[in-house]
Each structure stands twice: as structure tokens, then as C-alpha cells.
Amino acid sequence: MDDTGSGLPTPARHGQNERAIALNRKNSLFAGHDEGAVNWACLASLIETAKIHGIDPQAYLADTLAKLVNGWPMQKLDELLPWTWADQNRARLAA
Q1: What are the pLDDT tens digits along the chain (95 aa)?
Q2: Boundaries of domain holding 89
Q3: Which of 7, 12, 21, 67 could form a disulfide with 72 if both were Cys (CB 3.0 to 4.6 A apart)?
Q4: Distance (Å, whole) CA 66 – CA 70
Q5: Helices and strands (H and E) in the chain: how many
Q6: What's the whole-model pTM score?
Q7: Is residue 60 part of a domain?
Q8: Number of structural domains, the chain?
Q9: Contacts of 32 (CB under 8 A, 6+ apart)
């Protein structure tokens, strides 16, 4: 909370998340191949987006991958994006 009494959360301090991003960038140097680095970047982006939306990345990725493996329809792919997934699974995650 901020000191003004407005009840709004205090914004993140400058540089608070830079260490995690820098470590991830450094780790991606070991991808071994350009395609591996692209895949690494996609996965890191999904994980960080899940964190931003208050989702446990492991639960999100496990559920999403299970749905894809079991033949999730391509027309409903938007429902697997982190922000949509969070809205649909908020009640289940709260329990």
C-alpha cells in the first residue's frame, strides 16, 4: 500500500525485476542453436506473462500442454493465453 491512503498498490521500484530478466537472458546464451534460443525466448515469455497475471507458471504450462496434447481445437487457441486462462481458472486456483 502507498502512504497516501488511496489503497492502491505501490508501483514496483525501478530495476526490481531487472535481475530476473538479466539472468534469463544470460541463461539463454546456452541454448546452443538459433532455433533453441527462439524456443527459449517463447517459453520465458510465457512464464513471465503468467507471473505478471498472478498465475503459477508450472500449473499454467502443465494444464496448457495437457490440453494441446489431447487435441485442443485450433479455433479455441486464444483461450490458452495466460490472461484468458487466468480468468477462466481463477476459482479453481483459489481453492
Answers
A1: 445 555 555 555 555 555 555 555 566 566 667 787 788 888 888 888 888 888 899 999 999 999 999 999 999 999 999 989 988 887 676 65
A2: 18-94
A3: 67
A4: 6
A5: 4, 0
A6: 0.63
A7: yes
A8: 1
A9: none
- Asked if residue 24 lies in contact with residue 44, where contact means CB atoms within 8 angstroms, the answer is yes
Write the DSSP assignment of 31-93 as a string of letters: G-SHHHHHHHHHHHHHHHHHHHTT--HHHHHHHHHHHHHTT--GGGGGGGSHHHHHHHHHHHH
CA distances from 21 to 6, 16, 40, 91 (A): 31, 10, 13, 30
Whether 37 is in a domain gets the answer: yes
Q: Is 2 inside any structural domain?
A: no
Residue in the block written with cell 527462439: 38
- 5 within some domain: no
Counting Cα atoms < 13 Å in the Cβ hemisphere of 46 gives 17
- Cell numbers given for 14: 525501478
Q: Which one-letter amino acid corresponds to residue 85? A: W
Query: DSSP letter at 33?
Result: S
